[in-house]
Write a structure and sequence with these properties.
The chain is built from eleven helices and 14 strands. By secondary structure, it is of the alpha/beta class. The chain folds into two domains: 101 residues, Enolase-like, domain 1; 230 residues, Enolase-like C-terminal domain (TIM Barrel, Alpha-Beta Barrel). Bound molecules: magnesium ion. Its cofactor is Mg(2+).
């Protein structure tokens, strides 16, 4: 039975946190001397906003059906992604049945392939795809997880990402992932400071707690190997995340061979599509892939990425992604837990990950979330009407 057809597509932008979670005010842990590939330049070492990490802002995609039902999603991409959605991608949606997500995704991907494939364009495609799934769920009166085959467990378990794994332990999370602060340009002194940061946090959490390290692409293979080996033997670090450039598949394969047996190598938040993740899987680059649902191609593509990982015996633990992750993770056996980004400036309180943009965004309690909290049509959230939105490129016609 045909659903109400798509009448209009709107691409909006917003500033100030939300899906562009790096777009925070001063004094936030997420912009406090985090190691990055740009840290080789001293002038860009203290703040990621100094080199422009927050220039894009949030993209909001709204897809309206002829019966007035609106599906929406948020991701990173701002005005440049809004242009792509309004002027290029919307033609593949208007007048179409929202259930045709496979054909729509295929047309969005191959029509932009000559300038797309990864990054901003795939963020835009992801935003459209997630809005389409939200619309489909609302039209069918079902949560997205039900459309994906249903939950395979009754609750989600979370680890927390932020500057305070010790606070995460007190809040009931199963683990804490801390940011790395010093890159290779800060030499052996920086390496020693990194290790002492991990040691200090391990002393605060005690031994019986997952402790992980996020390196945001900042390192090289040799540095990452030295850091991982010491952190494993001295402090029981569980995994080293995104240690090197996402383009360096060969480096990841070497790092995975180098780290101590039992330690996990994770990456993928800046990887996209089934073809990108096929590289990570077939080259044996890591133990856990971490696609961001708003950046990897959306739910339609994540289904394919996840199936590849399942067949390869790898876990899929999406990066951040809030409800777009939760509705997926609960349906897959090879996604046994989820990430929660601690967006409180001090990383010591649970606040909604994409605040202030979503209403009804569920958050874990004592590190857990019942699947019943997701039992609302679509992704189960609404756009906060108090957030200022712009529509920079309204479609002609
Ligand atoms: Mg990360």
């Amino acid at each position: 039975m045909a659903l109400s057809k798509i009448r209009s597509v709107r691409a909006l932008t917003a500033r100030g946190g939300g899906a562009d979670y790096h777009d925070q005010g001063s004094g936030h842990w997420i912009d406090d001397h985090i190691a990055t590939p740009m840290a080789r330049y001293p002038e860009y070492r203290q703040s990621r906003q100094s080199f422009g990490i927050n220039v894009l802002g949030t993209l909001i995609v709204e897809i309206e059906a002829e019966d007035g039902t609106v599906g929406f999603a948020v991701t990173t991409g701002g005005a440049p992604a809004a242009y792509i959605v309004e002027r290029h991608l919307s033609r593949f949606l208007i007048g179409r049945d929202p259930a045709e997500y496979e054909k729509i995704w295929d047309q969005m991907y191959f029509s932009t392939q000559y300038y797309g494939r990864k990054g901003l364009v795939i963020n835009a495609i992801s935003g459209v795809d997630l809005a389409l799934w939200d619309l489909l769920g609302k039209l069918r009166g079902e949560p997205v997880h039900a459309l994906l085959g249903g939950a395979v467990r009754d609750e989600l378990q979370f680890y927390a990402t932020g500057a305070r794994p010790d606070a995460a332990k007190d809040l009931g999370f199963i683990g804490g992932k801390m940011p790395l602060h010093h890159g290779p340009a800060e030499g052996d002194e920086g390496l020693a400071r990194n290790l002492s940061d991990i040691g200090e946090m391990r002393a605060r959490t005690g031994d019986d707690f997952w402790l992980m390290l996020d390196c945001w692409m900042a390192l090289d293979v040799n540095y990452a190997t030295r850091l991982a080996t010491r952190a494993w033997h001295d402090f029981g670090l569980k995994w080293i995340e995104e240690a090197i450039s996402p383009d360096d598949y060969w480096g990841y394969a070497e790092l995975k061979r180098n780290v101590p047996r039992g330690m996990l190598v994770t990456t993928g938040e800046h990887e996209a599509t089934r073809w990108g993740f096929r590289m990570l899987l077939e080259m044996d680059c890591c133990d856990i892939i971490q696609p961001d649902v708003g950046w990897c191609g959306g739910i339609t593509e994540l289904l394919k990425i996840s199936a590849l990982a399942d067949a390869a015996g790898k876990l899929v633990v999406p990066h951040g992604s809030s409800v777009y992750s939760y509705h997926f993770v609960c349906t897959r056996h090879n996604s046994p837990f989820a990430e929660f980004l601690m967006m409180h400036p001090d990383a010591n309180e649970v606040v909604p990950m994409f605040r202030p943009q979503l209403l009804g965004e569920p958050v874990p309690e004592r590190g857990r979330l019942s699947i019943s909290a997701l039992d609302k049509p679509g992704f189960g959230v609404e756009l906060n009407p108090d957030v200022a939105l712009e529509r920079p490129f309204p479609s002609q016609g």
